[in-house]
Each structure stands twice: as C-alpha cells, then as structure tokens.
Amino acid sequence: MKKGILLAFFSVVSFLAFSQTTVSFHQSNLPFIGVNTQLGERWIPELRVGTDNFVENLSLELVGNYMVKSDEDKQIYVGLGARVNFLDGLVVPLGINYYPFAKKDFGFHMEAAPIIAVNDGLLLRGSFGIRYRFLKE
C-alpha cells in the first residue's frame, strides 16, 4: 500500500511539473486540500486529501472537473469523481473560482458537492476557501 501511495504521489508531481498547477484549501465539516492542473481549455483533474482527521481516517478524492464557463475573473465548473476510505463513493462537485485581484494567481472559491456514499447514503457537502495558481509566463 505504501509503495502504491508513493508511486501515485510521484506520478502526480511529475505530471504537474509540466502544466499550470493550482492548490486549494476547502473549509467545511469535511475539509480538504486539493492539487489540480488544467488540461486544455476545459478539463481540470484534481486530487483531494481530507484534513483535520486522524491518519487512519484520511480520505482521498480524485475528481475530473469540466469548466462550464471561464473568463479572466471567474471559472464555473462541474465534475465527477470518487472518494475512498471515509464515506466511500461518488462525488459530484459544482463550484466557482473567483480571482478578484489584478494578478490572477490568488482567489477564492465556493463548492457544493453531493457525496453519494456506498454504505452511508447521500451527503451534501458545501465548502469555501482559497485557491492559488502557479501562473506560467
């Protein structure tokens, strides 16, 4: 298991080194941090890791987001993904990123994401937080 996690980590880091990368923190009752990259004009895969819990309860999410609308200041997206360990199941995020400053690297976001848990039913998670883009010149 540890080898698999290390391999996945190094694969993600290698992949992100060649594209525009974004890191985020989502505050909610199930808070998490995310790392994503933009593929083309519309697709944004994101790896999310739960925070504020014990390591044995660490949850991972892998989400593929599609940008419905994008301009200089905001991005509206919808996605689909999977969640493992705590509340295993599907995740369906719908969110907005907003970059209000002149340099469009730091911004804010809000997201509503139903979690369709295999054994626990349906949970509607809402989150807000900050996002930082490592812009490439």
Automatic annotation (TrEMBL):
Signal sequence span is 1-19
Which keywords label this protein?
Signal
**What's the domain of life for this entry?**
Bacteria
Name of the protein in question: Outer membrane insertion C-terminal signal
Q: Which organism is it from?
A: Algoriphagus hitonicola
Q: What is the lineage of its organism?
A: Bacteria, Pseudomonadati, Bacteroidota, Cytophagia, Cytophagales
